[in-house]
Amino acid sequence: MQFLVVTRVLGLLLSIFSVTMLIPGLVSLYYADGSAKSFFIGFAVTLLIGLATFLPLRDHQLPLKLRDGFVIVVMFWAVLGLFGAIPLYIDEKLNLTIAQSVFESMSGFTTTGATVIVGLDSLPQGILLYRQLVQWLGGMGIIVLAVAILPLLGISGGMQLFRAETPGPQKEKMTPRVADTATKLWYIYLGLTVACGIAYWVAGMSLFDAIGHSFSTVAIGGFSTHDASIGYYQSNTIEMIAVVFMLISGVNFALHYLAFRSRSVASYVEDAEFKVYISLLLVLSVITVSYLYMTDTADFNESFFSGIFQVVSIATTTGFTTAEYFNWPGFLPVLLLFASFVGGCAGSTGGGMKVIRVLLLFKQGWRELIRMVHPRAVLPVKVGQKIMPPKVIDAVWGFFAAYVIILAMMLLVLMATGMDQATAFSSVVACLNNLGPGLGEVGANYSSLTGVQLGLLCAAMLLGRLEIFTFLVLLTPAFWRK
Known about the structure:
The chain has helices at 3-18, 22-31, 36-54, 66-83, 86-90, 98-109, 125-140, 142-149, 158-165, 178-203, 207-218, 236-249, 253-262, 266-269, 272-294, 300-315, 332-342, 355-373, 390-416, 421-432, 451-465, 469-472, 477-480, and strands at 382-383, 386-387. The chain has 482 residues and is mostly helical. It has a two-stranded antiparallel sheet with strand order 1-2. A hairpin with a 2-residue loop joins strand 1 and strand 2 (386-387). Helix 10 (178-203) packs across helix 13. The chain starts with a helix and ends with a helix.
């Protein structure tokens, strides 16, 4: 690893990130809500440390290597959570501890949407916008944005960052130049955000709320400007707009690019992962709506809209709520929580294990069953018409094994801290899948958890955002050998 080069890039990225604190600071000044000072202090501290790290090493312009990319991605997301917590900790209206501030910041950047803050409706506008903004930046990934910007600043090695940051087992460039790929991804991301914000505004949200919720919707984040989340508006129109954009944002952004370039929906229709994604959400919606209606939990109209909304919100790992789904009868809360294990498609802003991995696990399991009957048969695993290489199957099984082991270990540790089983299980699942709301004590918020518990869940959110291996590879001795 090239330590000086890595430090230089981290310093530059931190300096760039500091500018984002000026936006909510200016909003605070406009509304005179008393929180501007917190953001300006956060900006100054972050910028000074970033420049102090970057400037002495500005002449170390060696190309980044693959190992450097992994270190930069992991370190930057961890550093983001720490520095992003500064204005939250300083602001007296929030009165958060250090652990709570870091948790809230990490939850935003990883697009988890879990919160320790109670009383959102009375918070300053600057704080509310900041929470939404960090989710929007984390949605596509600040590293992917940096891949588009860093070449302009004389820093090469974008492919190393892109490989380390891009989620999912299929990491293919849409264009020959990785910087062009990152730029096009952000154009699509920005376009969806603008369209979502306009739709919310036309449907009845205030301009401030429409902007804030468009940030967290397209980012599959789940932060809201109200304690009641999307349920605050009591509007089926707004709920269905959210459903549409959550669905779109949970799709591989490469498909959006191909559809836009070809002016055709063929890229969606022919994609096996997309078809499984839509089919799964459809089946879950039918089950949920039917069960809510048959158990007299709500009338058909409410069951229909609430059921579809919560299925899409939880299954795509967005985490918006219109009802206390954790209090729904029977198996529904656990079913929806299990749906978050699947999450969105690879290359989307969604969390979870990703649809393509679950599809490959199912296909591989089915192949092993057939092999028991026909042991000599040659049965390749296909996704669509494409045969999956053995190394991809091995990687998916390795990811699944690591995922289950980490989930089990964190569950046991949280229970050892005194957390009950339902809360411990759901909080680990919600944070590891970057979902947000869980069951038990963490159904509404995470304000009752201790500093140790919040710290463990911060690690879970980071592991989920980096899809486990990007982080775990740094713990292997082979990574550090020359």
